[in-house]
Amino acid sequence: MPNSAPRRPAPLNSAVYSDLLTHAVESSSFSEFAQLVARHAATQLGAQGAAVTRRVEDMLVYESAIGSVSQAAGRSINIHSSVSGSVLLDGKTVLFDPANAGNPGDERTLSDGVGSGIIAPIFVDGVAVGTIGVASSVADPFGPQDVDGLEHLAKFLGISLKLRADRARLQHLERLSTLGTKTAVVAHEVNSPLTWFRLSLHELRA
After folding, report:
1. What is the largest CA-CA distance in the chain?
2. How does DSSP assign 111-129, residue by residue?
3. Is the four-CA dihedral 155, 160, 30, 165 of positive or negative sign?
4. How many CB atoms lie within 10 A of CB 157?
5. Sequence-separated (6 or more) residues with CB below 8 Å from residue 48
6. Judging by DSSP bridges, how do beta strands 49-56 and 116-124 pair with one another?
7. 59 alpha carbon, distance to own chain's centre
8. Based on the number of CB atoms within 10 Å of its own CB, is 164 exposed (0-12), middle (13-18) or buried (19 or more)?
9. What digits encode the pLDDT tens for the residues 146-189?
10. pTM passes above 0.85
């Protein structure tokens, strides 16, 4: 019986990596970059859908969701009631089958038309801050090579979040520095006439 599985695209190559690194720095928002990474994930891993989430307190917010899981876009789910939440809390990539896994949120995952998938955590400074996942409507289309590929994409998302956090800190420090300089100038302008006044008063007393 011939194998009817879709032909697996080539693994991530240098052109894809270069594109991701460029956009990790230049994208106007993390959601925009997440959308690009989700597209690469679906294309490169032969998936029917892909999604990126980011943790906000005890919730996971879908920053991007394309293809067969596009209905999840903008959704927020509790980290304790979803497969993605379990991945984030455990900090480990899972290759799952929601029909047999018994994970929290499997019923919702099945209702979204997911037959199998991979979810990998996104780390920033050693802390899991979100997830990236790919999905298929059929069981077991993914293997170890796909897990490795998704984990590489998760690293790019972590790099993007780290760069944005560092950039925000630098901008904050620049604002503080500018404010400090302005404060020093104002203090100098205030102190100069006061100094002149004190000297003049001293001369008058003399």
Report:
1. 112
2. HTT-SEEEEEEEEETTEEE
3. positive
4. 30
5. 42, 67, 68, 135, 136, 137
6. unpaired
7. 14
8. middle
9. 999 999 999 888 888 888 888 777 777 777 777 666 555 555 44
10. no
